[in-house]
């Protein structure tokens, strides 16, 4: 079983002891960052340049209820990755049916031991996680528009998490902004009861916490 910890240990053994090369470390950070970016709606930052297993993701939605906000997530990659998912928390207070005000996130691909095929698997990547977090700000729409949003030609070219969910559940694409399977039940009920007031509260939260 190959995990992040075992891979790093193996690589260190192959290379042997060596002094840290600032230029090389910087190149690695840029490479990792570029691989994680999703069009212009996501930005990746490494608070500690020596800890590539911990980074922050900022999602800047360009449409929908959350347009204009900047929502920050912290992502920590455990030693047992990729057998287990990374740990993710939302650092920005938000009024969202799938994110609590204290930062817990309902994202199916981060679930271990999922029975519907949409949870975490060793084949998942960090980019899948970034795609998934970005999709939490995308209103459900027909498949063609989803494909256009992600800059691919058709639905079969969608990122793996969305493609798998399309095959498992075509009519309801989980992990898009979802009011039917909420983590923040109060927010979901608010939207059901008064969509305009829900929008006003979202915008108020953006002004107060997400600028």
Automatic annotation (TrEMBL):
Coiled-coil region(s): none
Active site: 106 (glycyl thioester intermediate)
Protein name (Swiss-Prot/TrEMBL): E2 NEDD8-conjugating enzyme
Family in the record: Belongs to the ubiquitin-conjugating enzyme family.
One BP term from GO: protein neddylation
Source domain of life: Eukaryota
Single annotated GO MF: NEDD8 conjugating enzyme activity
Pathway named in the protein's UniProt entry: Protein modification; protein neddylation
Reaction(s) the record says it catalyses: [E1 NEDD8-activating enzyme]-S-[NEDD8 protein]-yl-L-cysteine + [E2 NEDD8-conjugating enzyme]-L-cysteine = [E1 NEDD8-activating enzyme]-L-cysteine + [E2 NEDD8-conjugating enzyme]-S-[NEDD8-protein]-yl-L-cysteine
Known EC number: 2.3.2.34
Organism: Falco tinnunculus (Common kestrel)
One Pfam family, short name: UQ_con
InterPro entries per the UniProt record, alphabetical: UBC, UBQ-conjugating_AS, UBQ-conjugating_enzyme/RWD
Main EC class the enzyme belongs to: transferase
């Amino acid at each position: 079983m190959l995990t992040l910890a075992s891979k790093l240990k193996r690589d260190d053994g192959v290379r042997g002891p060596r002094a840290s090369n600032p230029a090389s470390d910087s190149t690695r950070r840029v490479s990792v960052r570029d691989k994680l970016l999703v069009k212009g709606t996501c930005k990746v930052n490494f608070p500690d340049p020596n800890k590539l297993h911990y980074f922050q993701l900022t999602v800047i939605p360009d449409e929908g209820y959350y347009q204009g906000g900047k929502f920050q997530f912290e992502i920590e990659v455990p030693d047992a990755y990729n057998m287990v998912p990374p740990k993710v928390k939302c650092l920005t207070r938000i009024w969202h049916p799938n994110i609590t005000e204290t930062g817990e996130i309902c994202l199916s691909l981060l679930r271990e031991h999922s029975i519907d095929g949409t949870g975490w698997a060793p084949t998942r990547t960090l980019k899948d996680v970034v795609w998934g977090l970005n999709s939490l700000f995308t209103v459900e729409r027909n498949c063609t528009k989803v494909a256009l949003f992600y800059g691919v030609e058709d639905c079969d070219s969608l990122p793996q998490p969305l493609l798998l969910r399309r095959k498992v559940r075509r009519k309801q694409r989980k992990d898009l902004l979802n009011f039917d399977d909420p983590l923040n039940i109060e927010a979901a009920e608010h939207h059901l009861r008064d969509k305009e007031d829900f929008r006003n509260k979202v915008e108020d939260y953006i002004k107060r916490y997400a600028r």
